UniProtKB/TrEMBL annotation:
SUPFAM superfamilies: ARM repeat
Domain of life: Bacteria
Taxonomic classification: Bacteria, Pseudomonadati, Bacteroidota, Bacteroidia, Bacteroidales
Name of the protein described by the UniProt record: DNA alkylation repair enzyme
Length: 198
């Protein structure tokens, strides 16, 4: 059996699992809140994590899943993509195809915080004019700060400047993501807290 056939079979199996776990109420609720996907089964994150465990880290499957315009496929892709195989060029493609706040947050949490260039990626995203990228960038930074990754002086100045601007954003999700990252930054120690208060 060819590799492409194996991937197709895995995707068919995954989709049949989605049908069994479908939550119409959750899916309808997401649509009402403006979360538009071509297809949304309303499956919660805990269940998706459980499905991801069955497949382990699998780059070809993750790439194939990401191409499906289905909420659960995209989230699953972020869970099974090996971070060391996530090259910057591929990240750029995925970011370009990220159209919702939820997927931006999930990508940051499940995958982007673990890539070797996470800090560089985060700073590129927060300096970008697009809301989705900024949400993604601030979420990556929040995770890095939580892991005790201290930025250097130049990065601190850039972060505080960008976050200050983001707090004036008309997009509530951008403001929320920036505020969360500032909170995480402040929690790294007294001097960091003073910088935020200032």
């Amino acid at each position: 059996m060819t590799t492409s056939q194996t991937i197709k079979d895995k995707i068919l199996k995954i989709k049949s699992t989605f049908r069994l776990l479908m939550n119409g109420v959750a899916s309808h609720s997401m649509r009402q809140k403006g979360l538009e996907y071509h297809l949304n089964w309303g499956i919660d994150f805990v269940q998706l994590k459980s499905i991801a465990k069955d497949y382990g880290k699998d780059e070809p499957l993750a790439i194939a899943l990401w191409k499906e315009d289905i909420r659960e496929c995209k989230i699953l892709a972020t869970l099974i993509m090996p971070p060391e195989r996530m090259l910057p060029e591929l990240t750029e493609i995925w970011l370009e195809q990220t159209l919702s706040q939820e997927i931006a947050e999930m990508s940051a949490f499940n995958l982007y915080q673990h890539v070797s260039y996470a800090s560089t990626l985060a700073f590129q995203c927060i300096a970008d004019g697009r809301d989705i990228r900024q949400i993604c960038g601030y979420n990556i930074l929040s995770r890095l700060f939580m892991k005790g990754q201290y930025p250097n002086e130049r990065s601190i100045d850039e972060f505080l400047d960008q976050a200050h601007t983001a707090l004036q954003s008309t997009n509530i999700a951008v403001r929320h993501a920036a505020m969360n990252s500032l909170k995480r930054f402040a929690q790294m120690g007294e001097e960091y807290e003073k910088m935020v208060m200032k």
